Amino acid sequence: MWALFPSAPAASEPGVDFYELDGLADWPDGTLNVLIVPPEHGPIYNSDTGALSGGNPKEVGINNTYIAAIEAAIGAWDVAVQQLGTDWLSDSYKPSVYVLGRDEVPTEILTKPDILVITDENEGPVLGTAYRLFPCVVRMSRMELFSFSYADMYNVTAQEYGHCLGLGHIGGQGGTDPTSDLKEPEHDVMNGFNTHPIGAKGTHLHCISNLDILALEQALGAHYTGYFWGVGPGGNVVMPAAAYGDTCVAPPANWREMTPPTADYGGYPVDSVIQSPSRGAVIPASHFKRIAGTGEAFEAERFDVEIGLARIDWDGSCHWWDQASQTFLDRDCYSPVWHTASGSTAWRISLGSFKAGHYRAVSRVLASHGSEAGSEACCWDAPNVADFELTKQRSRS
Ligand SMILES: [Zn+2]
Predict the structure, then answer these.
(1) How far away, in angstroms, is 201 Cα from ligand 1 center?
(2) How far is the CA of 185 from the centre of ligand 1 (A)?
(3) What is the pTM of this model?
């Protein structure tokens, strides 16, 4: 269970150079059915607007402020995936959202949604909770001392829904220590402490960050095992503060390059190394036959190594070789098309003949450890990446 707590703003956060966030593999893929059980009314009472947002009749029924805020917050994740996610994530993350009593809900989703969104008049000192069960339950309070405003409902929903996607809290100690120096960034949707007084006028909407999206890529990209929530694999994303940005304030263009490889595989180290071609190799195209290397996965009975091969354009854009269609697909540089190599501790793969140009090979290990599995992240400056060049002419040495 993850909860969002009210809290005073941080005193000061000197010297916080890195932000961190867990992304856990709770879902086999991003095709998720979301069922919202709508609150029957909007804000009951606030000191500045009085009852029902100044007696607005729309606040009772299906057009109330809270339903709008809940839908907008879930929709904000779509926008962030499109804006900050890789091509792979955009292809994978496909939620279908239904409001009970308003939308026509297919029977199988009524009986078995993946994510169930509910509200509660008062959860006591907790603003919202996410229960990672089947279905995952997103549960928002509607008031603390005063009723939630639109922004309160939006911000709390965005976080609890994020938990149900597999994300933890931002910060050291899993974001559970309000005095931690690592609880920044304060206004990220996945911060475990809400620094805005509930019901106050003028609270801003929180924006979804590239840190959130990178953790979502870990959550949906890790090798899901179908076992218990949170026990399976995932990644702990650590990002330099300078690389951070969100859907409101864009991160630096090279934020992915600035961010170190994600390295947490449920406690099991997995590694692969590309040995041939070696990084920076210049090879006559006619001599290029295969990609080969080594792999290891601690205490795994068996594991696979997967390979992606990109052709890199002069402007740095990537086109990933797809063995099935025998073509290069236009995808971003972080969204390989994977092919399983032969062998594991020593592996090799032949993907065909290619014309002259700049290429990048990437490898990763997929390992099974009993009920758990690990998936190596793509690390652009790591031994599992090799850029090389194929030339028309036989190279002279
Ligand atoms: Zn804020």
Answers:
(1) 13
(2) 10
(3) 0.77
